[in-house]
Specification:
Distance between the termini: 118 Å
Structural class: alpha+beta
Number of domains: 2
Shape: elongated
Strand content: 25-35%
Number of helices: 6
Amino acid sequence: MSKRFDSKKLFYIFAALLIILFITFLTKIPREKSTLKKAIVSFDTSAVERIRIKPRFQDGGEFGFFRENGEWKIKQGNIVSRPREGAVANILNDLITIKPSALVAVSEEKWKDYYVDDSLGIRIIAENRKGKKLADVVIGRFSYKPVNNPYGGYGGGSVDGTSYIRQYDDKAVYSVNGFLTFSFSGGFDDWRDKTLIHAASNEITKISFTFPADSSYVLEKKDKTWYIGETPADSAKTSDYLGDLIYANGEKFADGFKPDLQPLYKIVIEGNNLLSITVKCWKENDGSFILNSSLNPDSYFESKADGVISHILKPASHFRNAPRR
């Protein structure tokens, strides 16, 4: 009798413990989820006057964006340049839309695992006019995550991923779905404007080439046909050339270059609804070239002979139709 009583008593105790455990699970998990931040940072983007980025050590030193006379500029040391198009707007939008998916660590010892320490992470600081920090975060490593997608590429899959982030004054590390790490990667030159030529091919009607001696010529569109002087140009070669020309970018910045001579070559692009674009070219002693564009007048770019200059600077013979045999 006592054994049956003890067994029944143990059964009720065990059942009660299960009920308590179940209730605890139901109440604790929502409470833990509710403590996850809805956003990493929140601020008025219109109040931002300066943005400082401390990239990973392999990407060089700190650089920053600042607003001057209503325009954003980028600076590192004594070098001041124009940022690439949309750079600042993208930075601010990316910051205020960061939504953590999970809390992955709460101790400083774990920072190196997620690359959110001072040496491995990318630190971004946004400040207002008075220097008050509106955001200060460290973005860490990225982890690839394969996704089964029947509409994906080779093998029927695609790639997703997770980035990691923490607020600079907080020990907590959060995961974020997506490619946030890549949005902030790169050094000073990667964020600068490299524009040489930007135009619509159907708006261009005239391109003047200045070469040494008497090799200069004009490529001009007349009644939908391109000509060199009075001679029709090769239509296929002209079309290919315009395709390379309209979105030409510089390759490597030549910040130390100071022109003391007139350019050896020059390209002037004119057209309908198009401001004239001038690209000047200097030749260096080592055979390389230095380029400068009226669209980006404060920047000079280095080009090897087979680099961007080979795509935008062509002799007249390139456009002439091959003689019939």
